[in-house]
Amino acid sequence: MTVYFNDISEGQRLPTLSVDVTATLVVLGAMASRDWRPMHHDHGFAVERQGLKDIFFNTPNQAAWFERYITDWTGPYGRLGRMTFRMKGSVFPGDTMAIDGTVTSLELDDTGCGWAGLALDLSVAGEAKTTCSARVAVPTNPDDNPWDRRGERWKP
Amino acid sequence: MPGPSREGGAAPCRGRRVSDLPPDVAALIGVRQYQETAEFPVERGYIWNTCAAVQNSNPLFWDDAVAGAITGGPIAPPTTLSLWMRPHYWSPGHEGERLALRVHFDMKARFDLPEAIIGDNTLVFYDPVRPGDIITHAQVLRSVSDVKTLHLGTGRWWNIDVEYWNQDGATVGIESYAGFGYRKPGQ
């Protein structure tokens, strides 16, 4: 499935992604991103040394979750240009994490590239844990491929 | 090794006033520091592990025919940008933890600020990262504010870019961090 620029409207809500977080997902995400810090894999360290509830998702893994969420919606022609995060709380095993998104802006830049601005929210039980704003390029028509853009034709 | 082909500076600037800074700090602004080249080439095992960790079924990362048609061949998920520069947990001849974002810790030490937070973190993606690429990165201090007092304490904001480029000198991404180093009231 491919989302085209003209198919998108400002204010459009993206489908919610709901994930039951397990210790395996936390550890797998940390190891996949080469984050060896113990609070992301060592329960005893997180609880006894840091006074936390449990191990928790690391930042690069959360970025990967947001990326997956965005490209689940755009399809493979969607090309991320920019993401900005703000961490507000931690996500632990046993949590049910929800990612929601809204289209906040649409822009055709001066090269003809179609951009959607997104406001994303990662929450647990309705409490925001991480917010993210993102800018993703999507095709303007079946002959347009954002991945073909290089140099001055790519303005993320 | 050529430098990146695009200027950095994506970070928002909080209180950009270079003139009131100590000269040694002002001299660091815009200077590339701590340039390092990755210890291993971009490889597909980490690409697949990253996708597995977040159940990402994007065919760009799993189906070479799709990747060939859309991206000219396999690529890494853009958000893996910093992955390729993280050191091995252990390797011969290296002892102790190597700090990421060393400029941040340098600023804490230079201004004798015992506490710090990272505020916004921005990733900007340029040319795709591909299996076999050798990534190099460097840190650039972009700005330092004058002294501010927040509810956390009194200190300074600084903006740091981490620029990433490939073996051809093409910029593949820039990470920007806004850090606030501070001293708590009474500390």
SSE map:
The complex is a heterodimer of chains A (about 160) and B (about 190).
Chain A: E1 13-20, H1 23-32, H2 43-49, H3 59-74, E2 79-87, E3 96-108, E4 114-124, E5 127-138
Antiparallel strand pairs in A: 1-3, 2-5, 3-4, 4-5
Chain B: H1 23-26, E1 32-37, H2 44-53, H3 64-71, H4 102-110, E2 115-125, E3 136-144, E4 148-149, E5 154-165, E6 171-183
Q: Which characteristics define this entry?
A:
heterodimer; A: 156 residues; alpha+beta; Thiol Ester Dehydrase, Chain A; 5-stranded antiparallel β-sheet; 34% strand; elongated; B: 187 residues; 6-stranded antiparallel β-sheet; 17% helix; 28% strand
Describe this structure in words.
Chain A has 156 residues and is of the alpha+beta class. Chain A has one domain (5-153): Thiol Ester Dehydrase, Chain A (Roll), CATH 3.10.129. Chain A contains 3 helices and 5 strands, in the order βαααββββ. Chain A has helices at residues 23-32, 43-49, 59-74, and strands at 13-20, 79-87, 96-108, 114-124, 127-138. Chain A has a 5-stranded antiparallel β-sheet, with helices on one face. The longest helix of chain A is centred in the middle third of the chain and has 16 residues, at 59-74. The radius of gyration of chain A is 17 Å and the shape is elongated. The two termini of chain A are 23 Å apart. With 187 residues, chain B is an alpha+beta fold. Chain B has a single domain (23-183), classed as Thiol Ester Dehydrase, Chain A (Roll), CATH 3.10.129.10. Chain B is built from 4 helices and 6 strands; from the N terminus they run αβαααβββββ. In chain B, strands 1, 2, 3, 4, 5 and 6 form a 6-stranded antiparallel β-sheet that branches. The longest helix of chain B is centred in the first third of the chain and has 10 residues, at 44-53. Residues 6-18 of chain B have low confidence and may be disordered. At the A-B interface, α1, α3 and β2 of A face α2, α3 and β2 of B.
